[in-house]
Design brief:
Blueprint lengths: L5 H12 L20 E2 L7 E8 L34 E8 L4 E6 H25 L3 E6 L4 E4 L1 H7 L3 H4 L14 H8 L3 E9 L2 E12 L2 E11 L1 H27 L14 H14 L5 E4 L6 H12 L7 E5 L8 H6 E2 L12 E2 L1 H4 L4 E5 L6 H13 L1 E2 L8 E2 L3 E6 L3 H7 L4 H7 L2 E4 L8 H17 L9 H9 L5 H14 L26 H5 L3 H4 L2 H19 L4 H8 L3 H11 L4
Parallel strand pairs: 10-17, 10-18, 11-14, 14-17
Antiparallel strand pairs: 1-2, 2-3, 3-4, 5-6, 5-9, 7-8, 8-9, 12-13, 15-16
Bound molecules: adenosine-5'-triphosphate.
Adenosine-5'-triphosphate binds next to helix 8 and helix 16.
Length: about 575
Amino acid sequence: MDHLLPNFKEYLQQSYTILQKMPAKIKRSHLKKDMLFVEKERGYVGLESIYVSAFTNADVPPDHIAWKSTACVYINESGDSIERPKTYTEFLLIFNQKQELLGYIKTAELYAASAHAFDTLKAYFETALDTTNSSITAIDSNQCTMIWTSGAEQLFSIKKEEIMGKDMSEFFPKAMLLNLNTLQTGEIVQNKQHEPREDLIVLINARPVRFDGNIIGAVVSETDITRQVQLRKELSSANETIVHLERKMSVIRPELHPFHSIKGSSPALKMTLDRIKQIGQVPARVLLLGESGVGKELFASAIHQIRHRETQAPFIAVNCGAIPPTLFESELFGYEKGAFSGASSQGKKGKFELAKHGTLFLDEVGELPLDMQVKLLRVLQEGTYFPVGGTKEKKVDCQIIAATNKDLNELVRKGTFREDLYFRLHIISITIPPLRERAEDIVELSHHFLFQFCHTYNKSIDAIPKSIMLKLLDYSWPGNVRELKNTVERLVVFSENDQLRIEDIFFSGQSSPDPHHVDPEVKKSPHPQRTLSLKQALEREEKRLIEQTLQSCHGKKDETADLLCISRATLYNKLNKYGISE
Ligand SMILES: Nc1ncnc2c1ncn2[C@@H]1O[C@H](COP(=O)(O)OP(=O)(O)OP(=O)(O)O)[C@@H](O)[C@H]1O
């Protein structure tokens, strides 16, 4: 404000010097508390102004004073209190916050100065509005247009002179007028993405104009971000190409990127990666230990990539806990044609065969039932096996990396894991540290997943708000990186207007903060994540919303599209897609 009113401020400052000429008695002694009229919040920063009428030979009638006083004191030139004289000049006295008199202003001069200050401010205000490319519009309490910038003229192709002073709802459907809603509800809108036309995407901010405790209008600014959205799409497709090329590259030259998918730079992770690099140099059998979700499969794949840098050798992962006992042998060793009823007539290669010249990754090895442990042990000892129904012995020609989140020592002690198999697998072991022991990685990992899921769900979220990041950093992550990944995915899916929302964070062991976010059918399922994908859940919600809105609009498509802030064409597409009858 100070900067916008340079002349007025200067004027006020000049007025202080006049103080010397004031009658001495006007200072403090005449200004009893009940006579003072303190004008606060008039915009004189740091000053309180006190009005008093003082006698001189003057010409300003009392009715025309700038600010009405509740009490006046009339004094003569000597500063003595007198009855109201016929003519007098009015002054506004200026005090600082310590109630020390600083100066005075003749109210007549103040008029001119205020008008000048107002014009100055108006000139700045109008220039500022015309300088921005955004559209800025405002309505008063009667919905009449008060502000319509050149940005608005361009965006909506309506000239200022056509719309100024007119009811804005004559020009736009009411449902599309965000300022009307803000005028009525006082709602503040921040960075909301909106698509008023098929070819136009804008970012909207809206605020009510408050004065004397009432809402007297609303201001809306709209920035055309169509180009940015287009660029983001182009960037996203460029990223896709990069990811694709990276993948190709890692096949052709795996040694260039063995760790590219392992994110994080904590000392604990670096130490683990250093050990992985060492192990990658030798073909020894490896046992990866660590809690569930720490990334054991990623590390196994990195070891494989280092070891097979020159070739495109296969990396075959087997989840030992998920193979039904009856299929264990046929899955691992394969079978010959006609080996058993129901078997493919062609026969089938087992995982050992598929991993030939590469790596067989035995995940969850601690879950293997004892009888299968015996079969696995025999293969590891002898280095050969027979496919089911086959008579020709096959040689194990792959490297083995096993992993478990169980304490194998403890299982051996309990007798549920064979000691001899344990020693066969446990040549070299590495323990991947849990995420809580490398909290430094949370920031990098969460941004990595944010980027990944924005790409998957076509969202444009640049950052994780500080409040959310603090929550992520504060949590102990029993489900490790997998849980963090799921948490970020959830935040991205339920983000609104490309903003992550703190209320969408919920950690394992907590129930969802908002029951609407979890589909009841998903809740019923013992494996919720497998029953309904997030995409399906979102589509279901979209369908429900369209049906509901259509019903409340008595089937009127125009109104429905307006209420949902989508075009009629988009609405028809969606009605078609979801088979909603019209
Ligand atoms: N450092 C990391 N950088 C990027 N992604 C990671 C990292 N660590 C783990 N992940 C991701 O977290 C998820 C879980 O990892 P992974 O399946 O390798 O864990 P795990 O230790 O094998 O778990 P389990 O013991 O339950 O099989 C995967 O989606 C993986 O890509």
